[in-house]
Design brief:
Largest sheet: none
Oligomer: single chain
CATH superfamily of the largest domain: Tetracycline Repressor, domain 2
Number of helices: 9
Strand content: under 5%
Amino acid sequence: MSKTQRTSNARKRILETAEKLFYSEGIRCVGIDRVIAEAGVAKMTLYNHFPSKDDLILEVLKYREEQFDQFLKENMNRHIEEGMKPLNAFFIVLRNWFENPSYRGCSFINATAELADATHAASQFSTEHKRQFHEMLKQIIIDSEGKKAAAAAPAIAILVEGAIVTAVSEGTPEAADIARDAAFDLIAKAKRR
């Protein structure tokens, strides 16, 4: 195995370990030494890849974004291939996410709340992630219900974000169903205008 492959494997192990720990226990609760121990790497290896914990946090969020986007796309496509409209598929996948036993909310909302610093690079990344997520949701609405329905997209985005938080705070996946029903009510109103 080449040095580059070992470096890649070590970096990936660090990211996967930190992502799992940050998501399940919180960014502030998990120290670098814990990440090093659970990833099975030397301290110098971690710092060669991530000069500071702040750098690691940012890279973990980038990694999480890739993983979440892939999860959403693959699972939605499966339902769409079965003939379902994209928005219906989105809400089914949202509910499935909430039903996962390890579900602990949105990594980006959690990071922003934990860091409590809008100027932190990870907070700024999280804000941009949410902007892109809302744009993607708007496109899903248009693809499913037409351009007039896009007028409801900002309110639906708020419903989805509220469902994400409610699902974790109440421990119930039904928040996805409630958000879906309200979203379709908003879309019906937007189409009548």
